[in-house]
Design goal:
This protein is an alpha+beta fold. Helices cover 45% and strands 18% of the residues. It has 2 domains: 3-87, no CATH class; 98-232.
Length: 242
């Protein structure tokens, strides 16, 4: 259901326009909000309107920043405008577990850059970036710890990601999530999309499921190693008291 708004055009005349929605997310603090509307403008005059802009303020005391919600008409000159984005969009680093960042700093760097590109509206190039980050994540996970022999490391470095997943990942959950993420990631780099009903959000969800599976495996292995050592120490015979 459209919302009716009286806006000011380039001649400072009042014109009635319709918008599909109000902004519900602050592009600066990245929190869901009911934005406070301050002013409304349309670009163009005499019924030829190219865009609609809404000046808003975040109602949160912790933020309170002013931003601009941008709308475009479905047809040039139309008076029905559809929400596109809000600016300025402040980059917010994605949340990645510390254990994963530690074993694959390259994954975190590439994923963060792809995330920043997406946040800036560069949605056609961030997909290949997410796919590249996945490859670094999976191979760094397989190569952890660094004690693998050089011949095995060379093989992992050279083989395709899908083959790497099937040959070297044993944990069934990690393997399943990495496999699905690879399928969708490949769609982002190819002319033809095999999974037409899936999009970038699905790819990111699968990457995060892979990250969570790897984080769980690393955490579990850490506890097993630490507590096994403690048990071995505890089972050693104590020296006799004098």
């Amino acid at each position: 259901m459209p919302y009716h708004i009286s806006a000011i055009d380039s001649n400072k005349s009042t014109v009635l326009v319709n918008i599909d929605k109000y902004p519900d997310h602050c592009p600066i603090c990245h929190i869901g909000i009911e934005a406070k509307q301050l002013a409304y403008y349309v670009s163009g005059t005499s019924g030829v309107y190219l865009s609609f802009e809404m000046l808003c303020r975040c109602p949160r005391h912790e933020c309170g920043r002013v931003f601009l919600a941008l709308y475009k008409p479905q047809l040039v000159g139309g008076t029905v405008f559809f929400y596109r984005e809000a600016v300025p969009s402040i980059y917010q680093a994605p949340s990645i577990p510390e254990s994963v960042q530690k074993i694959s700093p390259s994954f975190y760097a590439i994923y963060s850059q792809a995330y920043q590109a997406e946040s800036s509206g560069l949605k056609e190039i961030c997909g290949p970036g997410y796919r590249k980050s996945l490859e670094f994540l999976v191979k760094d996970f397989i190569l952890n710890p660094a004690s693998k022999v050089n011949a095995e490391r060379d093989a992992i470095n050279k083989i395709p990601l899908a083959s790497c997943i099937e040959s070297y990942i044993e944990d069934p959950t990690t393997k399943a999530m990495a496999r699905l993420a690879t399928w969708l990631g490949n769609d982002e780099t190819h002319y033809y999309r095999k999974w037409a009903d899936k999009d970038l959000n699905d790819l990111k969800k699968l990457i995060h499921l892979t990250v969570n599976a790897i984080d769980s495996k690393l955490t579990m292995d850490g506890y097993l190693e630490d507590m096994s050592k403690d048990k071995e120490v505890g089972n050693k015979p104590k020296s006799a008291r004098s």
